[in-house]
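Lecture 7 notes: from sequence to structure.
We start with the chain below.
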Amino acid sequence: MQVQVGIIGAGPAGLLLARMLHLQGISCAIIESRSRAYAEGRVRAGLLEQGSVDLLTETGMGERLHKEALVHDGIELIFNGERHRIDLHELTGRRVYIYGQQEAVKDMIAINLAAGVPIYFEAEAHKLEGVESTKPRIHYRYQGKDEVLTCDYIAGCDGFHGICREVIPPALFKGHDRIYPFGWLGIMAEAKPTSDELLYCRHDRGFALFTMRSESVSRCYLQVPPDENPDDWSDDRIWSEFDTRLGRHEGLTLSTGKILMKGVTAMRSFVTEPMQFGRMFLAGDAAHIVPPTGAKGMNLAIADIYVLARALTSFYKKNDSRGLETYGETCLRRVWRAQHFSWWMTSMLHISPDGNPFDHKRQLAELYAVSTSRAGQTYLAENYVGLPFET
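Predicted structure tokens for the same chain:
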């Protein structure tokens, strides 16, 4: 099989790229190692920046999103027994949207398949060949047979553990990594959200985040050691700890319910440089990982694809390859801004296991500086709602 662009990975990055290329008449195909049911059911991110929503809408993939997403104008920081609201919309004119990544993936898969874009589920890409040639090839196994997809360009949207990043020669590859000394115990519960907006809580026992997936389903997180066993946490223990870290505030009461799922996620930051080699381009988790505190994971993937799709379109429509040549450089400017914001939010709100009284007092001073200064609120808000795709 031969197409203009071969895409490895049917996550948000690969699916959005396929849609944007199809709308421009550029042929593509997606190779995905997992089943369709797995891709549509995996619970991950749930917050979309305004720019991400605008792009999904422009590409015809926002209809259900606009019907079902929860639109938020602000967030709250809770620390030292006080609540401080950051009015995102008043400060920036922009909003954020709560819409589960798995729901966005369902929409993207359905629309791509309806448009005739080939998506090969349970197809394991195991080798890239000729990446520096004009006709790179993706070797994959599908339905018990070895197959080859020949293309002009390869989009590596295959996640942190995929094969595409490994193609970059060791002499060129730079992996910038930071492992955090804590993780998140995340739960999904049949419970009305504790608040209409996200609550970011800094407590002496550790960080807690109260968010949601709908008006009747809560998604909440507790800071725990990265190797914590979720089975050690009974439902009663989980809700008791959330109640403690939320604290007592007028008009705010913890909402509890049946816990549907729980799990522990370790936290890390990672950036790949370069994000391209030959005719292979990395996007999304294949290129970078951020701690979830800043809600940047899926949004960074969408920003990468905005740049890559425009570059590919310029090449095929105008024979202009400048966007392809500078793809990685363009994306990395925004990636590093998002990495800094995610690190900053994480370091400001989490309790370090080797912290001391000075660190705790400094954190509180920083939180007061951010929440009581319009300049501090604006900095947080501008980054939270999302920077321009091309900074």
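Points to note: Residues 21 and 184 are 36 Å apart (CA to CA). The mean pLDDT is 96.
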